[in-house]
Write a structure and sequence with these properties.
disulfide bond, single chain, 3-stranded antiparallel β-sheet, mainly beta, 828 residues
């Protein structure tokens, strides 16, 4: 029959050996081509053919190749196409304001009113530094913009820069009681005649003209709102000029009530009776009476009786009294003032007129004319003389006051009264005064009020910011600058000298500011100061083909079991376990992708340890052509159970079983005590005899002390070494040790691979979930081994660091979960 040469040394093939009738055919795995010797395989450089389908960069590897992307791109899931990285999605690309993604990069931009710095931060533009921002009056800088403001009395035009005068009089008359007059930047109030302006310069109050000594009313003055009127005493009426009072003739107006005669008097009147009548006591009614017949009728002068009536008469210059008899001197001055304009002087039987001082009597002896005293040496006045009716008054020019003598004028020191109305300094002059201001102020248009001089408008006193104050100004600097000792100049502050400018890593000083940056492997936080480690593993797995471990400021790639890191420190290449100690196989070792397997020659079978090849002994129930005959009387251990063994009889092996409590001891080719054999195999000496102490104690001193009977086939923790544990064998504890690279797990009572700390990005999941690294933050640890992928024939998972890592078989192979390896003929 045909010999399968592929069984021995893989038929000399480096990769795949296919047995054909009488020969073998070698072939190579995908990514390799067969050399001319028809046995060895050479790597195919897929990058030579159209970059292997890579969009950007093609890197050849043994048996395959990988695609990489240029900076600013990441590799798509097809492992060939490169897609632009939107750097703006991660911390806004480090930009302070606007991040604009571009193909393969990005640009930082600033909002209007800011300028872009080299570090991507934005600096406010002070528009007020250029032409005062276009403002007529005041320019106020704000973050990203500016605004114009106007001085009091002005308002901002619709264009936002020009200032126009505010007509305060259009709104509620400027608060004025009467008249409002608008002026540039302000306004003034005034009052109508008869009113005066209060100290608030707005309110008008009535002026009581009756308190003026020169009021022209003859008798009484009555004040009214905004004016006054004159009134007369009883018996007088107001003349047409509305000022002078004249006697009211009650007799003409028939207001007297006299029975016969009415005689008007100054301010009053008297009743009289016709001849032959006498006035009754009511001083109104007349009664007829003849008095002449007896004693001259009682008349003082003459008694006249006529028409039945007697009456007394007086001589010229006398008047009959009310008794109708007595004659008294007629005081002509009592009637119409004797016709005199001023003074009437009565004399017995006659009178004469005189004038009041300041007047002279005319030739008619009754009328008076005013004497102008000012015509003669100004009547003694030192400055002004004003003639008045019957007199004169001295007056003074503006800025002088009249002395008590009524003649002399002296200078008025206006500064002594309310500082002359000056808001600051008042200087008296002869007949006048003037106001002045302290340094830093100038005189307003009213020539009294001092207004602050805004030195910041006049010249550029300061390097940067000028702050006006009352009567002065001071300079200050923008953020990032400090004021020098001259009080005007600004110099840059090196913020990096103080606590590194608040930067957690690198600080870069700029003129007027500074910015922070980070070392490689870190990125700047939104506070633009703190540097945070960049987890490179989150972006395209850090470029690692398998495992990516983030480190402060960097990262490292690693590989799952069965692979090792390539020279590029990113990709993983298969480890040929067969090159080291033949992979632990005692016969043939066959390397596989990510693993290996031990193979046995003809008529041998692989033991349960999957490393040792045992003869496939001929037994009564086997095909004798495919087995190995044994030597009569030979014993062989059963690789599957330590309490069984094989015995050869007539070339056939028979499976036998040791008595209970014993196992096969291959050292002496017989069954022996299980405790004794296991202890000797482990320690090389006999165990000491154990003595029962208490049911609660456990054996802790490796059989050097006393212990109780333990529970059969139970395991107990050994605290001295994580690789060691106790097993209860025949009521005694036996110290065991796990293989290299594994530790004892008391929870599941088995040896497991050492579990490295889980990467920081693992996350908690439920007990039923698997852990898929690196997309989760923390998960429950999986058990060492391989897991199939239900959705793919080529993909499988391996447990690394407690988490499942997705793997893929080479093209043309399928995952064999039974053999836990990639096979050509595996069924999906």
């Amino acid at each position: 029959s045909d010999i399968n040469e592929c069984v021995i040394a893989n038929g000399g093939c480096e990769h795949v050996c296919t047995n054909v009738h009488g020969n073998v055919v070698c072939s190579c795995r995908k990514g390799y081509v067969l050399n001319k010797d028809k046995k060895t395989c050479a790597d195919v450089n897929e990058c030579d053919d159209g970059k292997g389908g890579c969009l950007h960069i093609c890197i050849n590897t043994k048996g395959s190749y990988i695609c990489k992307c240029q900076s600013g791109y990441f590799l798509e899931t097809d492992k060939r196409t490169c897609k632009d990285i939107n750097e703006c999605q991660l911390a806004n690309g480090g930009c302070q304001h606007i991040c604009e993604n571009t193909v393969g990069g990005f640009n930082c931009k600033c909002r209007p009113g800011y300028s872009l710095l080299e570090n991507g931060s934005c600096l406010d533009i002070n528009e007020c530094e250029v032409n005062n921002g276009g403002c007529t009056h005041t320019c106020v800088n704000t973050d990203g913009s500016f605004s114009c403001a106007c001085r009091p009395g002005y308002q901002l035009h619709a264009d936002g820069s020009q200032c126009k005068d505010v007509n305060e009089c259009t709104f509620k008359n400027g608060g004025c009681s009467h008249n409002c007059f608008n002026v540039l930047g302000s306004y003034k109030c005034s009052c109508r005649p008869g009113f005066y302006l209060q100290e608030d310069k707005k309110t008008c109050l009535d002026n009581n003209e009756c308190q003026d000594e020169d009021i022209p009313c003859s008798h009484n003055c009555i004040n009214i709102l905004g004016s006054y009127k004159c009134s007369c005493n009883h018996g007088y009426v107001l003349k047409a000029d509305k000022y002078a009072c004249e006697d009211e003739n009650e007799c003409e107006k028939h207001l007297d009530g006299c029975d016969q005669l009415c005689i008007n008097t100054i301010g009053s009147y008297v009743c009289g009776c016709e001849l032959g009548y006498i006035l009754l006591p009511d001083s109104r009614t007349c009664k007829r009476k003849n008095t002449c017949a007896s004693g001259n009728g009682g008349c003082d002068h003459n008694c006249v009786y006529q028409n039945g009536t007697s009456y007394c008469m007086c001589r010229s210059g006398y008047v009959l009294q009310r008794d109708g008899k007595t004659c008294l001197d007629d005081n002509e001055c009592m009637i119409g003032n004797g016709g005199c304009q001023h003074l009437c002087v009565n004399e017995p039987g006659s009178f004469h007129c005189e004038c009041r001082p300041g007047y002279s009597l005319l030739n008619n002896g009754k009328l008076c004319q005013d004497v102008n005293e000012c015509d003669k040496n100004k009547a003694g006045c030192s400055q002004l003389c004003q003639n008045t009716l019957g007199s004169y008054v001295c007056g003074c020019q503006l800025g002088y006051s009249l002395q008590p003598d009524g003649l002399t004028c002296i200078d008025i020191n206006e500064c002594k009264t309310s500082n002359g109305g000056c808001s600051q300094l008042c200087q008296n002059t002869d007949g006048s005064f003037y106001c002045s201001c302290r340094p830093g102020y100038h005189l307003s248009f009213d020539r009294k009020t001092c207004e602050d001089i805004n030195e910041c408008w006049l010249t550029q006193h300061c390097d940067q910011i000028c702050e006006n104050t009352k009567g002065h100004f001071y300079c200050s600097c923008r953020s990032g600058y400090k004021l020098l000792d001259d009080g005007r100049s600004c110099t840059d502050i090196n913020e990096c000298d103080h606590q590194n400018g608040g930067c957690s890593q690198l600080c870069h000083n700029l003129i007027g500011t500074h910015f922070c940056s980070c070392q490689t492997g870190y990125h700047l936080q939104t506070d633009m100061k703190t540097c945070e480690d960049v987890n490179e593993c989150l972006m395209n797995n850090g470029g690692c083909s398998q495992l990516c471990y983030n480190q402060p400021g960097s990262f490292v790639c690693s590989c799952v079991h069965g692979f090792q890191l390539s020279k590029d420190s990113a990709s993983c290449e298969d480890v040929d376990e067969c090159k080291v100690n033949n992979g632990g196989c005692n016969k043939m070792c066959r390397n596989t992708y990510g693993s290996y397997s031990c193979n046995c020659p003809s008529k041998h079978q692989l033991g349960l340890d999957e490393s040792t090849c045992w003869p496939y002994w001929c037994m009564i129930d086997r095909n004798l052509t495919d087995c190995m005959p044994c030597n009569h009387g030979e014993y062989q251990p059963d690789p599957g159970a330590d309490n069984q063994f094989y015995q050869c009889t007539n070339g056939l092996m028979y499976l036998l079983m040791c008595p209970p409590g014993t196992i096969w001891d291959q050292r002496v080719w017989k069954c022996g005590d299980i405790m004794k054999i296991e202890f000797e195999m482990l320690n090389g000496t006999e165990p000491v005899n154990m003595t029962l102490v208490s049911v609660d104690d456990l054996c802790v001193d490796n059989f050097t002390g006393e212990c109780v009977i333990c529970l059969p086939d139970k395991y107990y923790e050994y605290t001295g070494d994580p690789r060691k544990f106790y097993q209860c064998v025949h009521d005694n504890l036996v110290l065991r040790e796990c293989p290299d690279g594994t530790v004892w797990n008391k929870e599941i009572s088995t040896c497991i691979h050492e579990v490295l700390p889980a990467p920081a990005q693992f996350r908690p999941v439920s007990l039923t979930e698997m852990c898929f690294y690196p997309n989760m933050t923390k998960c429950y640890q999986c058990q060492p081994g391989f897991y199939e992928d239900d959705d793919s024939c080529r993909r499988f998972y391996t447990c690394a660091n407690g988490g499942l890592v997705s793997m893929s078989c080479p093209d043309g192979t399928r995952w064999n979960q039974t053999l836990t390896r990639c096979d050509n003929g595996a069924m999906c």
